[in-house]
Amino acid sequence: MLSELERITNGLHIREERLRRMDTYMKEEELLALLDSKDRTKETLAQALRIANELVEVALGYTEKGYALNNLGRIQYLQRQYDEAHRTWLESMKCAHVIHERFEDNKLLHIVSSNLMLTYIMRKEYSNVEELLATLDQAFPEDAETLGMTSYTRMNMANERGHVHLAKEYAYRSLEFFQRTGNSRQIALSMINAAHFEYRTENYSISAELLSKAIELVQSREETLMIAVKDYVKTLIALGDLHKAERVLCEYETMSWEYPDYWGKLQILKTVVKDDPAYAQNVSDDLRVSKVVRDFSYYCLFEYYDSKGDSEKAISYYKKCHASTDMTYKFLAKEAF
């Protein structure tokens, strides 16, 4: 007489090992180890992608399929394949919805929705995002972290559509929610976002105050700290407080060397503060720094030599900026800086 387990496996035409997920346990462990590693390389990500695709292929049921797709999306995202990651996470979201509705289990819904908000923002394409945000507002009405992320997503949407004041409202709403979590990094990033929109609406004193608080919060998180320091110096320049801007630049110059793009931006700001082109020139010649930041150094040097009446050097840097039709000379006003 067949056991109940044998009847199930026979009815589904699968082996007992597959039903119990014993055949994929080791692969799942290997995949998670690769995803959690701090020493990820192109080779390890390629290995992780292969394993993730294998696990998706054999996955049974909404739970196994949903989590397998989520992990596949994580790898695609790490490989900067944002469109592919977005499509994969949308498929995972279908499973998450079923699990939530049938079993009142919202764990996968929470994980995948957070990931989807990242790809909406990275792709700057927001079709159907309101449906996702409404689902999250309803499913997690008391979850401060989720509500902080939905506000952050709405902030980016408003910004992309040119609604700066609305974006600022959502930035403060996101800050309010993240303050409830006690997560210092998230709080600091939210302060940086709010300060950004205060800067854009020319409320420089408020922007500087927020950034000063953010710097205090993330002294142990260097990359986030570099963002706050760069924006703080930029805001101090707008306030005309060049002496304080120079002190801040000196304080964090050594630390910034570990982050070439932030080092480059701080050196460009140093040219503005000290009225000396040498610092931006160093950035323009440094191949450790991304092309985007080197282009900013050209903008800066163009402005510098143009202001000094040195038309020959100004024109040479103008040409290095490719004389693009959308080029604006006031590089500090560029949002990407």
From TrEMBL:
Highest taxon in the source lineage: Bacteria
Protein's name according to its UniProt entry: MalT-like TPR region domain-containing protein
Organism: Tumebacillus flagellatus
